[in-house]
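Section 5.1 Outputs to date
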Amino acid sequence: MTIYSLQVITTTGYPYYNLEIEPPPEGVPLYLRFFDFSTQEFNHENEFNPTECFELTSGFVSAIFEFARLLDKNLKVLEFIPLRKNTKRSNKSQEKQIKKQSGNVLITCQTETYLNSKAVKQKVQMIFDWVIQNKIPLGLEKKINLEEKERIIRILTDAKAKEQIEAKKDELTHVFNKFLNEMEVYGLEGVCVTSFDLSPIISFGINFKSVADLLRNLGKIPEIETLRWKYRESTIGDLRKWVYIVNSGVGPSEESIFMPYYYILFASPESFLGESPGILASKINLILG
């Protein structure tokens, strides 16, 4: 599991919905990601002077630090992104977007740090479009029912991708194991298939715990073009490893959202894989494409 919880609140603080999917792992750094579906924009007429800004920041930092401590969590980093200036909107699509996202909805997710941010945002957007938007204005009289809850969980846990992998499991097992046996002499140690946000689905030659550890220690994961791959150095314990990440270019779709699989190869520091990540991708794509 890589997305552990989801919360829906309003920007005024009303706690509309809380979904705990699975308890987060202990001792592992996690992100609390924020997704703003409100129409609030920044207005320069309301800027604070430096003294007011410092006082406000001091109170906020003190409060959130104390809140994290009460939850037995160690707060390390807060990232702030400037709001857009308040500008006139004349475009019809812009007006439609305002109407669609009115309601001051804020969605947060507690997730693994290595997940692809764009893919997580797409998941949350689907949840907003298919479930939350119909509940605005949020209130007790518009609760999320069991069917809607199951739909949210399916989106967050990559149910469609997992079902496709399960249906092809025998074929995948044969190809992956054969590939591992052939490439072992070149330093390949394990392979993994992930969903489009890099949540591991199935692995060969390496367990999920080791996959997670290596991805957590990878640093910022780069954007990868379709049918291309990039590699980075990571660590597990005191051991260095090479991690190759391949954008497969194939995968399931949910309406207009395409969700490509990623193939991840783990190798020793002395490995030489050459073009083998692309060769593996072409073989697996014949099964999953």
